[in-house]
Amino acid sequence: MTEAYTALQSLAQVFAHRTRLRILDILARDEACVCHLTNILGEAQAHVSQHLRVLRDNGLVVDRRHGVMVYYRLSDARATAVISLLKDLRRAAGAEDVYPAVPPLPVAGCPCPHCAAASTSTARECC
Ligand SMILES: [Zn+2]
User: Fold this and answer.
1) Predicted structure pTM score
2) Which of 9, 72, 101, 106 could disulfide-link to 115, CB 3.0 to 4.6 Å?
3) Are 15 and 8 in contact (CB under 8 A)?
4) ω before 113 within 30° of 0 (cis)?
5) Domain spans of the chain?
6) What pLDDT digit, counting tens, does each position of 97-107 carry?
7) 101 C-alpha to center of ligand 1: Å?
8) Ligand 1 centroid vs 106 CA: distance in angstroms?
């Protein structure tokens, strides 16, 4: 019984980092590569990669290789349900937190293929 709580504690610790929470929020919208996440988060690529590894090793995200690119996505949508529940608990406690919105594609300065494709389609739409 104690071992079960220890395992639960380990999983809860995966959620106990603001960068990992934000990565999960971003991936709730769509898959993303490290460079895309780095551009949104404004953090070093090595730092973002480290958090993605923790999330992947704990089964919350999976990766997909496409050529030289590696895309990450949620492996289970219940991860975002956990975050929603945490936000609800904060609101119930009277907090008026404001969470940054996930920016639409293309993200300024992001060289990832998804942003490049969005830039091209945006350019076509307005020209
Ligand atoms: Zn991008």
Assistant:
1) 0.90
2) 106
3) no
4) no
5) 2-101
6) 999 999 999 99
7) 15
8) 6
